[in-house]
């Protein structure tokens, strides 16, 4: 095996070199090595991809769809995305010019930020939130500004947003990233709450990147897209990983005004050339004949949610009922005198339950831990039994 030559050891990207990998992955991989541990760490659906969707991928292979796709994605999928967004959320995008298919929502986030950020630009990121926003902003030369929303129930208020923009300088702030339904909190913005944000940013020279990957997983009120209220400044991010359990197919997309998509599509082309054909044909099937495939999954998630939240609160972990996604975000009792990382490590080692410490989601996550209920009810019930015993031992 080759060793890195001493002459190039210091030839390294100085932004990336000091970064670690996502804490979500670090703890998931670390805890996976503990024998007998129940892992409630990763946000990956435990369902299989619907059969008709798999068949569409297989047929694509058998039909020799083995050549380069159009860079923005096959037109049939872009049309399916356009029709889906119109039918589901009453927002309209031209499939020819306003949609680009990406390798998962993660690439969509990267491409969108790359189309905005110049060195020194600031991006507002309410925390706790999805872990990858912060390092992507840094890699692109931007400055991530974390906005702790814990005291406001994990909600970015118009008042707080106005204060932060004034503090950071309206001329320096180029984007705000919203993630809702929220990971890790399950928080969902109402129309009035979104309007508060619109009222603040509508006259500012800044975009809002709205990551709505969990839009199909809301319990009660229907998801409202920010793009419906502010289409000209919203960059909509979505995909099929969560709605159709297609995490491994890696299909996401950007929907935004034509001029923005033109630049985002350039970065997409530079980075990946084009998405995989079989995955795209599967996604097309999912968004046409499988548009309601997510409903039975959502019903099962809701049953798990109700059980796990009831148990967590009964054991002594203050947990708000998530309105969307498939996570709980619970407060660690002050009496334990443990940081989020210390709590997660001890729960894994002593209680044999794997959770993600809240600090994996930014500064606003300290003092909390996330559990994913995208796992079987049997595992969840056993995890709650173990958590109860672990908690009693901590108290004693």
Automatic annotation (TrEMBL):
One of its GO terms (molecular function) is transaminase activity. The keyword Transferase applies. Its cofactor is pyridoxal 5'-phosphate. Keywords: Aminotransferase, Pyridoxal phosphate, Transferase. CDD domains: AAT_like. One of its GO terms (biological process) is amino acid metabolic process. Its EC number is 2.6.1.-. It comes from the Bacteria. Residues 37-387 form the Aminotransferase class I/classII large domain. PANTHER family: AMINOTRANSFERASE, ASPARTATE AMINOTRANSFERASE. Belongs to the class-I pyridoxal-phosphate-dependent aminotransferase family. This is Aminotransferase.
């Amino acid at each position: 095996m080759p060793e890195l030559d001493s002459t190039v050891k210091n030839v390294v990207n100085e932004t990336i070199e000091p970064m670690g990998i996502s804490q979500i992955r670090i703890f998931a991989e670390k805890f996976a090595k503990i024998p007998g541990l129940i892992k409630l760490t990763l946000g990956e659906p435990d369902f299989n991809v619907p059969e008709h969707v798999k068949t569409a991928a297989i047929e694509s292979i058998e039909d020799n769809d083995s050549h380069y796709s159009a860079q923005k994605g096959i037109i049939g999928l872009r049309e399916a995305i356009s029709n889906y967004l119109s039918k589901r959320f009453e927002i309209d995008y031209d499939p020819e010019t306003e949609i680009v298919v990406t390798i998962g929502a993660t690439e969509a986030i990267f491409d969108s930020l790359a189309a905005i950020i110049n060195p020194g630009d600031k991006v507002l990121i309410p925390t706790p939130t999805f872990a990858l926003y912060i390092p992507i902003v840094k890699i692109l030369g931007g400055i991530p500004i974390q906005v702790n929303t814990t005291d406001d129930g994990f909600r970015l208020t118009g008042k707080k947003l106005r204060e932060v923009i004034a503090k950071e300088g309206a001329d320096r702030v180029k984007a705000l990233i919203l993630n809702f339904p929220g990971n890790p909190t399950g928080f969902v913005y109402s129309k009035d709450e979104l309007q508060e944000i619109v009222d603040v940013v509508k006259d500012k020279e800044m975009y809002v990147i709205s990551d709505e990957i969990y839009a199909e997983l809301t319990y009660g009120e229907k998801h409202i897209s920010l793009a419906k209220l502010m289409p000209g400044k919203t960059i909509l991010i979505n995909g099929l990983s969560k709605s159709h359990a297609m995490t491994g197919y890696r299909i996401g997309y950007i929907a935004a005004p034509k001029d923005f998509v033109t630049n985002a599509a350039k970065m997409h082309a530079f980075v990946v050339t084009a998405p995989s054909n079989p995955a795209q044909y599967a996604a097309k099937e999912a968004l046409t004949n499988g548009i309601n495939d997510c409903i039975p999954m959502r019903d099962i998630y809701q049953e798990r949610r109700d059980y796990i939240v009831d148990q967590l609160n009964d054991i002594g972990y203050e947990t708000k009922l998530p309105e969307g996604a498939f996570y709980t975000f619970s407060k660690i009792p002050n009496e334990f005198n443990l940081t989020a990382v210390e709590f997660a490590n001890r729960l894994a080692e002593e209680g044999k339950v794997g959770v993600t410490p809240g600090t994996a989601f930014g500064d606003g996550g300290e003092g909390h831990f996330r559990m994913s209920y995208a796992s079987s009810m049997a595992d969840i019930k056993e995890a709650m039994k173990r958590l109860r015993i672990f908690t009693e031992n901590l108290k004693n």
